[in-house]
Design brief:
- The protein has 360 residues and is of the alpha+beta class.
- The chain has a four-stranded mixed β-sheet with strand order 1-4-3-5. Strands 2-7-6 form a three-stranded antiparallel β-sheet. It has a two-stranded antiparallel ribbon with strand order 8-9.
- Strand 3, helix 5 and strand 4 form a beta-alpha-beta unit.
- The C terminus is likely disordered.
């Protein structure tokens, strides 16, 4: 049953923190199989490494204060106008910037969800209300239901789509109809993407990251797509030199990754099936349905497995982990599902998404 709740998050932490694991458990970093991050299982493409090597020759120069060429390349990639795109130091910077578009904003979060939305609102001296979906609905919010009166005073609504950590992806028509009732900010999933609506509607902003799909979480590169007026307001908040030279050069050549992204889309369903089958053999967790390359699991029996508990997502019960660290492989698990050395465990891939963190 959906519920409404106002809550301030405490010190939750993200996944992918190998230094903490090594310090806490004394496990050599090469023995850690990290299931808390959801970067592309195909690994960083060679062309990305090549671009970064080339960009290192420019490290003695300042990058462009405003990443014009990067934004032009991203707009061409999406077949939209330059004025409808801006870039940030990871989509996380854009989340915090979006929260600052309103003074002391009142925000609605569709929870459980990515915790940085709430942190961003609090950093802007705002207040958060959670619309919480439960286990009995498989954590699926009912967008066809009437909008509760309590939600109408929200100035910002963050919709993580596909949602992290639940992996829920809703049809575009359902989200679009719901948004048109009152929504100020939103996000995507390609066939479920709200980019077409964002181009027309000043109150809708789609935030994306290239972190997970290109397996470059250490690089930090995200972008926003929206109405020209909204993008203009956002760029007034964002600082200069926010995109390092390596990230700028990678974005400028984003179209060269099309084949790699297509290979990823073709491979993930097979990887996902094998992954779920092997995880089910543990008999210690229940896996909830997911539309992307990460899953939400409920611990049935802890056995000898170490999980990161759900305080990382405060509105989930303690029996819902999103992390496993172990010296040994789970029998039959493909090594391509092990996390990369660096990652924040925040966003994932979904559908034809460049990054699944769809922010509303």
């Amino acid at each position: 049953m959906d519920t409404l709740e106002t809550e301030t998050i405490s010190g939750s932490e993200h996944g992918g923190n190998r230094e903490r694991i090594v310090r806490s458990y004394g496990i050599p970093t090469e023995d850690i199989h990290d299931f808390s991050v959801n970067t592309n299982p195909l690994g960083t493409p060679e062309i990305a490494e090549e671009i970064l090597r080339e960009s290192a020759r420019e490290i003695d120069r300042y990058p462009s204060p405003s990443p014009e060429k990067a934004c032009e390349a991203l707009s061409h990639w999406h077949e939209i106008q330059r004025e409808n795109v801006t870039a940030g130091n990871g989509s996380i910077e854009l989340i915090y910037a979006a929260a600052r578009l309103f003074p002391s904003p009142k925000a609605l979060l569709l929870s459980p969800t990515f915790t940085e939305y709430e942190r961003a609102v609090h950093a802007a001296d705002g207040a958060v209300t959670h619309w919480i979906s439960g286990e009995e609905e498989n954590f699926q919010h009912d967008f066809t239901a009437p909008v509760p009166v309590n939600y109408h005073d929200s100035e910002i609504i963050f919709v993580c789509h596909p949602n992290n950590p639940t992996g829920i992806l809703s049809p575009r028509w359902m989200l679009k109809d719901w948004i048109k009732k009152f929504l100020p900010f939103v996000s995507e999933g390609e066939k479920c993407s709200l980019i077409p609506l964002a181009l027309e509607e000043e109150r809708v902003l789609v935030l994306r990251s290239l972190t997970k799909i290109l397996a470059v979480p250490g690089l930090r590169l995200g972008y926003a797509v929206g109405h020209s007026q909204t993008i203009s307001q956002l760029e007034k908040i964002l600082p200069p030199w926010r995109i390092n030279i390596g990230a700028q050069r990678l974005a400028e050549r984003i179209s060269e990754f099309d084949d790699y992204i297509q290979d990823t889309r073709g491979s993930l369903p097979l990887f996902y099936k094998d992954f779920i089958n092997n995880f089910n053999n543990l008999h210690s967790v229940h896996i909830f349905p997911s539309s992307c390359n990460f899953v939400l699991a409920k611990v049935v029996c802890r056995e000898s497995t170490s999980f990161r508990p759900s305080p990382s997502f405060p509105l989930l019960p303690p029996s819902f982990p999103r992390k496993r660290e172990s010296r040994k492989d789970i029998s039959g698990l493909d090594s391509r599902f092990r996390g990369n050395d660096d990652g924040d465990g925040n966003d994932g891939m979904g559908g034809n998404d460049v990054d699944s963190r769809q922010t509303t």
